[in-house]
Design brief:
31% of the residues lie in helices and 24% in strands. With 413 residues, it is α+β, with helices and mostly antiparallel strands.
Length: 413
């Protein structure tokens, strides 16, 4: 194929066009679902399960689980003969938690996986159970996260930036005043462990095809899995069983994906999660990170437990279709749900795909819609390539067992 024809192919692809409004709105709905760690049902059951039920063919099935709110949309339920491919996004969001309530009504919180300094002044939502009705949740809005109050009360070192904010300084300000503040807060049903999440739905950015807001990590992975399922529902695969998985508890150890992988035992497992835009990350020059930037395609991870054979299939499929991707690397751990099979002790060929974003774990995470679209269509191209392998019989377990690279056969450069 000539360079001119390749360019034409890229321009024609959906991954090279701005995301349609309807699709962007669905992405916003997923990311806005209040699903802090351990309480992910708002995203998995409230948004994604209804979407799955709306577009799935009758023969597909949705699996649910006892210990977590994860779900799996299964294209060939109960079929153990077909080679199975599991794609995983995680619905859980990092959150703050109530630690204790002070006499003045301050609600002291932990910072979980946030940098304390990134939280100050931001509006949040606190979810607590009704005092007289355990299991019935309500949301408390109108509060902000604070630490020092006015600059007038800060230490000189804090004013110059020489000294930062410690996690134990953080509290939720609900503007309580007057008598019995602590008792009044407790009467609201607020108690230790209640989750608090940032309140900022995504918005379109200033630069074309960009967007920003809270919790791209990892509603984007769930969105990718859902949109991939939507494409496959229109033209189902004949030979490959696909397990579109929405997992939980990733942010505290990938427990949800590990449990699901352990139960369903996929032959191939692909984790879908946010990644970093290393090129724009401040202060990384001395670390000599590889080039990775938003707007130039999804990321594909080499190293750790990733399968060279699966990565090669993805690369070949994307090159054939003209879909942009970038290469990232990992050492011991991918840091994503791609590790789920290994953690569960399951023999799966695994890899990790991602979307380079900026400002991860802040209220202003920033991404690029073309990277998301490239991942969706890149995975579709890969699955269709798997489905057509072996003269139309599909990828086999024998392929996975016998296609490990042999470096002793490498030719001299």
């Amino acid at each position: 194929m000539t360079a001119k024809k390749k360019t034409a192919t890229k321009k024609q692809g959906a991954w090279a066009k701005s995301m349609p409004v309807k699709q962007f709105d669905f992405m916003r709905e997923i990311l806005a679902a209040p699903s802090p760690i351990g309480l992910e049902g708002a995203m998995s059951y409230g948004v994604l399960k209804p979407a799955f039920e709306d577009f799935k063919p009758k023969q597909w099935a949705i699996h649910q689980f006892k210990g977590n709110a994860g779900i799996v949309l299964d294209t060939h339920p109960g079929d153990e003969k077909r080679t199975s491919v599991m794609l995983i996004g995680h619905a859980d969001k990092i959150r703050l938690q109530v630690r204790s309530i002070g006499k003045d009504g301050k609600i002291w919180v932990n910072s979980d996986s946030f940098l304390p300094c990134t939280l100050i002044g931001h509006e949040v939502k606190l979810f607590s159970q009704q005092p007289d009705k355990p299991g019935n949740y309500r949301v408390i809005e109108g509060g902000t996260i604070e630490a020092m109050g006015a600059i007038h009360f800060s230490e000189p070192a804090q004013r110059t930036g020489a000294k930062g904010i410690k996690p134990e300084m953080l509290f939720l300000e609900l503007q309580m005043h007057g008598d019995n503040c602590k008792e009044r807060v407790e009467e609201l049903g607020i108690r230790a462990g209640d989750p608090i999440i940032l309140d900022r739905p995504i918005r379109k950015g200033f630069t074309k095809d960009t967007f920003y807001g809270a919790y791209l990590d990892n509603g984007l992975g769930c969105f990718m899995v859902a949109e991939l399922a939507r494409l496959l529902a229109k033209k189902p695969l004949k030979n490959i069983r696909v397990l579109h998985t929405i997992a939980t508890h990733e942010e505290i150890g990938r427990m949800g994906a590990t449990a699901i992988a352990g139960e369903m035992k996929p032959d191939v497992l692909i984790g879908a999660d946010v990644n970093h835009d290393y090129d724009a990350a401040p202060g990384l020059g001395a670390k000599r990170m590889n080039t990775l930037t938003m707007g130039k395609g999804f990321s594909l991870t080499n190293g750790s437990i990733t399968s060279s054979f699966i990565n090669c299939l993805i690369e070949k499929s994307c090159r054939k279709a003209g879909i942009p991707y970038q290469i990232d690397f990992a050492g011991r751990d991918t840091g994503t749900d791609a590790m789920a099979a290994s953690l569960a002790g399951i023999d799966s060929a695994a890899t990790s795909v991602g979307f380079p974003i900026r400002n991860m774990h802040t209220i202003s995470e920033t991404g690029h819609t073309l990277d998301i679209l490239a991942a969706i269509h890149g995975m579709e191209a890969t699955l269709r390539e798997m489905d057509n392998m072996n003269r139309g019989k599909g990828l086999s377990r024998n392929d996975l067992q016998n296609e490990h690279p042999r470096l002793n056969e490498a030719k001299k450069a």
